[in-house]
Amino acid sequence: MKIVVLMGSPNKKGSTSILVDNFLKGASDAGHSCEVIDITRMNVHPCTGCVACGYEGPCVQKDDNEIIKSKLMKCDMIVFATPLYYYGMSAQLKTVVDRFCAYNSSLNSRHLKSALLAVAWNSDDWTFDALEAHYKTLVRYINFEDMGMILGYGCGTPSMTSRSKYPDEAYKLGKSL
Ligand SMILES: Cc1cc2nc3c(=O)[nH]c(=O)nc-3n(C[C@H](O)[C@H](O)[C@H](O)COP(=O)(O)O)c2cc1C
Question: Could you tell me the distance, in angstroms and rounded to a whole number, from the CA of residue 66 to the centre of ligand 1?
Fold first, then answer.
């Protein structure tokens, strides 16, 4: 299976990347080919809502989103990787998700597998309620098949994350695919 990770953290050596690296190790041990797209260093503009695409057609904005689209249209699984920012996904990741608008039907008809890797400082049981609800709603709307979520409670710094159970859980999720 070809797996694309949409890396939504700007920190190359941060907590999100610890989960991503472990997930990748597991997935490659299971024989999958993986690619990480560092969307935080790409030139992707927010959807302007012009709907010139008619929800399925070329976007009038010519930017790096075309690269992301072409990779997502060829993969079997998307992994959304993000730090928790004000109880949602990072703006960088949300920007890419909003641009799904111009290939909404194509994405929907591909019935891709998906997963969520997320980290947060907080460890209250409600920490991920909003992000989890959002992700599950996207899965339902875009017709993904959810393969799992790793929600890293109390993963506020790379050392907190390394000491937690979540890197291992991320590895196991990748390996289980
Ligand atoms: C802009 C911003 C918003 C954040 N919002 C939250 C939040 O709502 N809840 C939370 O628990 N942690 C929040 N955090 C903490 C990060 O989610 C946490 O430190 C995470 O480990 C960062 O991941 P990274 O190392 O990949 O950047 C926020 C951090 C930043 C920079």
Answer: 28
